[in-house]
């Protein structure tokens, strides 16, 4: 710009600023009620259009297992399952972005942690071992002492307890990720909230199933599915009384028993009844070959050790042992056969890969 052409602009600025400086303050005007102007809210910015890939269709239950029931308040849908799968693997669910649910529930270990005990976000130690997430849809209560009644409640407790989350704050930050927000709207008809995050997790957990093991195939008539040892072990499992508590097809009675392991009060913490001291939920033995270390405190490092303790019928701890435990003598051959039988309960599972996160 030439100096000449810039001159009028400069002049105008100078004049204007002088004018402002010299203008006397306006005399106070008698306050008239201001006409109420109709302020139109600024138009909301348009939601970005997001094309979500279709959620995978729900699968039929695997060979050996029936349908999983869902509560009427939270029917299972493909969209919720897909969302819950992502949430379980996402560190953004935690207080400080440091930990996902999957930190203590690894795919290849039948969704257990592999450690006896794990530290939560913030460093506090769990006092009990992280159990498998497979086939939880068939359980009637949750945690080792059964203190949680539904998968929604236990997911909510884990979200706050293990991941240290402030649910409302985490839901807000999930909604800042446009794809997440769209996934929530698709699954629940609303953005992420403190309430629907645990519901999505619960729906996914109901779809996380494992069956079609060698044992299931044998039950379905395949005579060659079980090795000689496993067949022998299957008979011992009945004759040694294991089946009294580890009831097929899930190999649990979903009841609580004391095996005298450690000094943890177990179910008594929840019911406050002395009769429940030292009792824990009978773990399902499906996929048990993958879930070492064993027992509520994870102190048995190998399956052999766990079988030996169960056969002995007591861990030698201070709490009285359930009368259903009968001390059994196991020869090395019998112990080997029982182990082969338990290995035949390793099945094929849904969700054996990590999801792609938004
Ligand atoms: C730091 C480790 C850790 C993290 C992270 C974790 N869990 Fe767990 N989980 C455990 C432990 C330990 C238990 C057993 C607690 C008990 O029985 O008292 C458990 C138990 C459970 C159970 C009950 C299983 C049963 O057999 O009753 C469910 C369901 C579960 N977790 C889901 C989740 C979900 C969902 C998340 C994420 C929101 C999560 N967990 C994060 C360690 C963890
Ligand atoms: C009276 C009921 C009962 C009987 C009988 C019983 N169990 Fe158990 N079993 C349990 C309970 C309860 C636990 C968990 C105990 C704990 O952690 O304190 C358990 C745990 C186990 C575990 C460890 C599983 C895990 O995920 O940690 C194995 C393996 C096992 N039992 C095998 C057997 C075998 C083999 C027999 C027969 C020799 C047997 N059980 C007899 C109730 C029983």
* Structural domain count: 2
Number of strands: 4
Indicate the overall shape.
Answer: elongated
CATH topology descriptor of the largest domain: Cytochrome Bc1 Complex, Chain D, domain 2
Uncertain regions spanning at least 5 consecutive residues? 6-22
Strand content: under 5%
| Helix coverage percent | 25-40%
Compute the gyration radius: what is it? 31 Å
The largest pleated sheet is described as: 2 strands, antiparallel
Oligomer: single chain
Question: What top-tier CATH class of the largest domain fits best?
Answer: Mainly Alpha
Based on the structure given, which CATH architecture of the largest domain is correct? Orthogonal Bundle
Provide a count of the helices: 11
- SSE succession: HHHHHHEHHEHEHHE
Strand order across the largest sheet? 1-4
- Could you tell me how far the N terminus lies from the C terminus, measured between alpha carbons in angstroms? 50 Å
Q: What is the average per-residue confidence, as pLDDT, rounded to a whole number?
A: 91
Structural class from helices and strands?
mainly alpha
Q: What bound compounds does this protein have?
A: heme C
